[in-house]
Amino acid sequence: MKTCRPRLPLFYRATVALSLFLSSLLPPSQAAEPSLPPSPRPPEISTEDWQKIFGEEAQVIVARLKAANGITYYEFRNWDPNHWGIGGARTYVLAENGQVLVPWRFQLFGDDPPPWVRLGLSFPEAVAMEKQVYQKYIQLWGFEEARKGSLDTYMDKLAATSIDYYYPEVIEAQKELGLLPKDFVPPPLSPRRQRSLGIMLGEEEPKPQFTAEQNRAITAKLIELVRANGRGDKAAIEKASRELDEIMRPKPSEPNASSEREKP
Questions:
Q1: Measured in Å, how far apart are the chain's first and last C-alpha atoms?
Q2: Which of 39, 59, 216, 246 could share a disulfide with 76, CB 3.0–4.6 Å?
Q3: pTM of this prediction?
Q4: Helix (H), strand (E) at residue 129
């Protein structure tokens, strides 16, 4: 079993998952018993791989699709009896011929989930995956509550809507299910978040954080820091740490005093 993470930029997660947002739509008394039971381990995933991925944590399969490329795609959510069986921690799993890949899983300060089309699905297949998730919300809370939750997700002014709700397949799935109007256009994102969305959709290239020269300097300084730690040389450790911080967070250059005097 291989675990990998797509080379996507890091973003702070403003919302954990749609399920946690929608959980506020019903009174707590209705959440006493889960509506969905834990899912059994699918045959495409071996017992050993299942243990490596999830350990003893029960899961619910909220979406599963055998794609045209021969790979079976899964979206798991942790089973949470306090939220009708569906928790907010997602895990994406791909299975083919006994090989299992985990391209993404939820972490509080991790990457946003990649669009399914970035993981090999066609657009109609990606829409089908997303529709399965929303169909479960309709099953749990009814159409009107699910529709209200979808609209509120985009219109809530007090919270920043997570980038993945702007993926075309997510919006299209909700439109096809009638949870969003056919002519629905989500509110515009800020320029910074719009660029983040473009990067996630593969429409823009992320800018490298450091130049090649800075990367070499950082590597050399890290080696120096490790060696200083090994010697227990406190002064050398502090010096290497300070210089490493200066490389990674350079201060704005100050104007040259002589050049300032030469200005008319």
A1: 68
A2: 59
A3: 0.69
A4: helix 123-141
